[in-house]
Fold this sequence. Notes:
CATH architecture of the largest domain: Alpha-Beta Barrel
Domain DUF4982: 627-683
Largest sheet: 10 strands, antiparallel
Domain Glycoside hydrolase family 2 immunoglobulin-like beta-sandwich: 219-325
Number of helices: 9
Bound molecules: beta-D-galactopyranose
Radius of gyration: 27 Å
Low-confidence stretches: 1-27
Structural class: mainly beta
Number of domains: 5
Oligomer: single chain
Number of strands: 47
Signal peptide: 1-23
Protein name: DUF4982 domain-containing protein
Mean pLDDT: 95
Keywords: Glycosidase, Hydrolase, Signal
CATH superfamily of the largest domain: Glycosidases
Amino acid sequence: MNFLSRCILGCLGTFCILTTSFAQQNTGRKRESFNDDWKFQLGNAADVTKDANYGLAVIFSKSGKAENTAIATKFNDSAWRNVQLPHDWAVELPFVNKDNENLKDHGYRPVGGLFPQNSIGWYRKKFTVAAADSGKRFSITFDGIFRDAKVWVNGFYLGGNESGYVGFTRDITDYVSFKTPNVIVVRADATQAEGWFYEGAGIYRNVWLSTYDNLSIADDVFVHAVVTGSTANITVEATVQSQGLKPTTCSFYAEVTNSNGKFVGKTHPQQFTIAQSGSQFMKQQLTLSNVDLWSIEQPYLYHIKPIVTVEGKQVDSRDIRFGVRTVEIKADGVFLNGKFIKIKGTNNHQDHAGLGSALPDYLQYYRISLLKQMGSNAYRTSHHAPTPELLDACDSLGMLVLDEQRLLNSSPEYLDQFERLLKRDRNHPSVFLWSIGNEEGYAQTNSFGKRIAQTLLAKQVQLDPTRTSTYAADLANVYTGVNEVIPVRGFNYRQFAVAGYHKDHPTQPIIGTEMGSTLTTRGIYVKDTVTGYLPDEDITAPWWASKAEEWWPLAAKNNYWLGGFVWTGFDYRGEPTPFKWPNINSHFGLMDVCGFPKNLYYYYESWWKDEDVLHVSPHWNWKGKEGQKVNVWVNSNADDVELFLNGKSLGKKAMARNSHLEWDVTYQPGTLKAVATRNGKKISSQVKTTGEPYKIKLSPSKNVLLADGRDAVVVNVSVLDKNGLEVPDAANLIEFSCEGASIIGVGNGDPSSHEADKMDGNWKRNLFSGYCQVIIRAGNTPQKVIIKAASKNLLGAELRY
Ligand code: GAL
């Protein structure tokens, strides 16, 4: 788990945050991955006999009673499948075409009320605990289960967790056996959806087993700082708790190390006696001089280690990574470490090609890196708590996060979900703002919404006074309800109303929580309502949304816009707007579900990055269209661009800021080249007519794979012609095999493909618009890894690790 923090200073009508932030690994205590060696079986929501007798056998009449169910320790699960977590059973199911809104929104995977046979998942895992650890405490942390999970250890019920997004921890100490293998059982019920987008099903995030002392530091450590010049005054807040049987005298302090592991400061140890079953809240401070600040460009991270000792011996500690930074959110901008930044953000859901919602941690780094390369500096976790590793990636790589609560609801269940989200994520330097909800049409403009918002905001200020909150409203110039009380006004679309709203409420900062939303299909240039494809240029947007060039120029030039988040960075499963079947995933992404860029990616890259960008589209393979006009788009941040077809100039045009250029070009095969001038420097880019596919090219995302059973590599696949040119419209079927590691998913970004993401051996995928992707997970032992790709009539390719 990771923690972070920061500190707030109130500034005249503005919200001003001065910060430190921390993300954590545990030392002193043991925290082990609990992802391996699970067994899995589908249950049934409509037939108790197919649901491990759940609902038939009376199990809640006596503590530990579990006979005649899969919950029983002795239950024979040898016929169940072996799975390694994270695991998403929804992505394994075949697509089903049924005219149903819920099914469409969730990507036509047959989970939910209409499919009781696919909506319950049972998991079992046997584990041993060393007798040497007798006397210790043990807990299990689930980072996320979709959803409505119930958990048992050795037949004893540990309680449930409704949320499909907020994780939970259960103390299992009382139920652990040191002599015989222990059995943990989870029943997940995905019948009820929480969203209107693909959500996955099962234990789709990491699980951890922690071993620690009866005297321990509770999970909710909070670290924050006030920065003055090059000095940071750091405050650490922690609860020391005793579950021992007698009062204990102990000491508490915290140590800080820099990114090289060098000691840079510590708090003064404080001694106190803690009663049996007692707890002691600690608040200590230390000063760091010549502090290295965390920023988007240089995400410098420190570690802080709160420690509790008894008679000089360390009994518990936490290791929390943090970054020192200041964030001020004012009506005229976000200031990070005092420097103005425009929010250049994307919204994202959590699924990826081939994997559904169950991503190895590496994929979080992969996806955040792709967004960073585009020039994006912020990520909205629409519309729920992210996995902790996403925040780790954002801390490490320098990406701000707008962290969102699933529902605008102040009932005990949702207030508790919000509380857990705040406590879990408040130490991450990347988190710069909370969101208390999204488009709550039943509440946002009335007194219910206003009161719920006030309750959630009070909770946020209580648990994290170092930040503030927004709410994503699909409202134009409307102030009643949530907007009356929300510190930062969020606009979902309706960019035309922002100027008027600002005029009426000049001191309320405004952020575009959802903006843009051009619908595009990568590499496709005509609308096709049969296949459900849309042209890959900034042309088509739904009625409620806008094209990129309709919102970004407004946000770019007016500082009463803090900036905005495009809907979305990546395509995601579900919401195939404006189509339905055969479309199974959205078209909103600047990249497809694999992370292959669409042309719009280069529009944002041009205006979000201060580096030369020059991109020509479409590709230049238009056999049969000789003599016909082809509409050419150039995305660039150059001052002017001249286009040449086979060496002949088609004219030079000045590039307006935050815009693009177009030419209608009479097609003839050859080379279409753009030559541009940027700040007096010449740059060029071209597309070329290619020959037929000749050989496969594999492009791995990295060259080293850790043999830890968890690491992963993303391998992008394309084909080359005889001259080594990538063939952009290739559609070959590629077959994959792998020795020494496991293939865990394939994809190609085609929003209407019904090919399987997962398969039992014989892995294959068609290229779509020239690309597909295969994702490999490392094995547990160091060994040679060979990944092979083959296709009929093509030269194959292989990678070796
Ligand atoms: C918004 C909503 C998003 C997504 C999007 C599609 O209204 O907040 O979750 O549904 O529309 O356009």
